[in-house]
Amino acid sequence: MAISFEQFMEATGAELVAGNIIVGVMGDRKKVGSLNDEGVFNLNDDGKLLADEIETPSGKKATKSKKAEAAETPAEDAPAA
What is the pLDDT along the chain (81 residues), one digit of tens a residue? Predict the structure, then answer.
């Protein structure tokens, strides 16, 4: 599935500055792509990572294994010391 320019801009809160797609605030701003005169936009590696995050449904993201979750959860049956 591909993401449209409008979807990308809305989901990331990016700004278009002189043909460059910029995300971030103040010192954390970075270029993630560009928009040419014909209306075609291209994303760099950072932009592609953002697009992948937008396109991946939240339920499909990698989760911790059950063993890792069990290790983080205190045992309810353990006697108090």
Answer: 588 899 999 999 999 999 999 999 999 999 999 999 998 999 999 999 999 988 886 655 455 555 555 555 555 555 665
Record the pTM.
Answer: 0.64
- Distance in angstroms (rounded) separating the CA atoms of residues 72 and 51: 31
**CB 54 within 8 Å of CB 7:** yes
Inter-residue contact 26 to 15 (CB < 8 Å): no
Q: What is the DSSP string of 3-28?
A: --HHHHHHHHT-EEETTEEEESSGGG
Instruction: Tokens 């075609």: give the residue.
Output: 40
Q: Is 55 exposed, middle or buried (0-12, 13-18, 19+ CB in 10 A)?
A: middle
Interatomic CA distance for residues 67 and 38, integer angstroms: 52
